[in-house]
Design goal:
The protein folds into three domains: about 40-290, Bira Bifunctional Protein, Domain 2 (BirA Bifunctional Protein, domain 2, 2-Layer Sandwich); about 305-400, 3-Layer(aba) Sandwich (Rossmann fold); about 420-490, Translation Initiation Factor IF3. The protein is built from 15 helices and 27 strands. The strands form seven sheets. An eleven-stranded mixed β-sheet has the order 3-9-10-16-13-12-11-24-27-23-22. Strands 18-17-19-20-21 form a five-stranded mixed β-sheet, with helices on both faces. Helix 3 crosses helix 7.
Length: about 500
Amino acid sequence: MAKELKDLTKRSDNYSQWYNDLVIKADLAEQSAVRGCMVIKPYGYAIWEMMQHQLDLMFKETGAHNAYFPLLIPKSFFSREAEHVKGFAKECAVVTHYRLKTSEDGNCVEVDPAARLDEELIIRPTSETIIWNTYKNWIHSWRDLPLMCNQWCNVMRWEMRTRPFLRTSEFLWQEGHTAHATREEAEAEAQKMLKVYATFAEQWMAVPVLQGVKSETERFAGALDTYTIEAMMQDGKALQSGTSHFLGQNFAKSFDVTYLNKDNKPEYVWATSWGVSTRLIGALIMTHSDDNGLVLPPKLAPIQVVIIPIYKGDEQLQAITNKLSPIIDQLRDLGITIKYDNADNKRPGFKFADYELKGVPVRLVMGGRDLMDNTIEVMRRDTLDKNTVSIECIVEHVKNLLNDIQKNIFDKARNYRDDHVYECDNYDEFKVRIRDGGFFLCHWDGTAETEAQIKEETQATIRCVPFAYEQTPGVDMVSGKPSTCRVIIARSY
């Protein structure tokens, strides 16, 4: 086994270090020279591109169109929506000057004090304010609605404690912003986009999620409702993997965005916003991967099949290549991404370990004996099982195997999640069991005071009021007050 794999921390020893090791050793990302920021390396970015491509198709099927809005937002825009600025004020990076100058000794550059901006600019932590200031010029009558824009971009939220993909000061994401004529239409849009995210997570990422609505304390700053998908990682912690917000008329009123209805009377529009980020790569890693490295779902793997010839001399290599070339063409015709690694600068054992580390779903190996026997060795990354398959059957076998791997890793993750969802009605019991992780279905009295107490005493938070479980009245385990619903409580990233 390659040294790189031997140096990968085991999950059971230190889950957090295992994650950090894997991000680096699998060539996904590395720390940047800029504090709190990361460099997404080509392999990590390729996974993001796969996600981006599929999500973009799904967004456009709903009627959304891509656009782009400025990175810099005038500070005064944030003052118009009180809850919004309150929610992001501590995370905002501020541009105060527009010019540098050479120092008097000529050895460095410094900020030119004469170049101070008349109004400071905020590097976008999210784009509601700049977008709604723009929508004011785009929306005039009911014929202009609904207006549905999405943008793929970077945002900045100044973080003190960072972790690659999960929490960084700068990250990549998409943010959708829609305007509607009625409350009902906007609420339906917010819920529809939540389902889009859930579908993507489960069918493409193979990550099971619970859909639900956030508590008032946990909802997005400036929203009336925040809908969320929550995924369980292998350590039992929750990861918020996508959110969709019903914004009501808050931003429309703040930026005076009205339309003339069919009766020619002015009304404020109704709004939503929704987004997912490169945090999804963190979810992918922590849901499926193991002590040998990444385990990627075939639908999002940049390389779905790697083929490695083992040969002695150029003549044997040519014979293996001739045998495999039509197979490679057939697999590519099926839309399967192939890498034929015949490079002679790395030993086969190193290649095996490296592609295993990077989570390539299927590995095919042909050596001299396989060439004579008209067979090929197949290994699936999810279970590490190996078998030998006839060349005549290999194309159909690989196609079916990729589908099976996709399903298997989803089923494995879902079973793990379901086995770690617990009903709990005793607070003392909860405080002990939460240390080991899991999702706890607990009655909640609906008060912020109870929510704050749980967070302070256990470091766990209310993740959502889940849609998947039948709700019945009960008693809050903390306060003893009546409760109308059970919520998911968990520690989280």
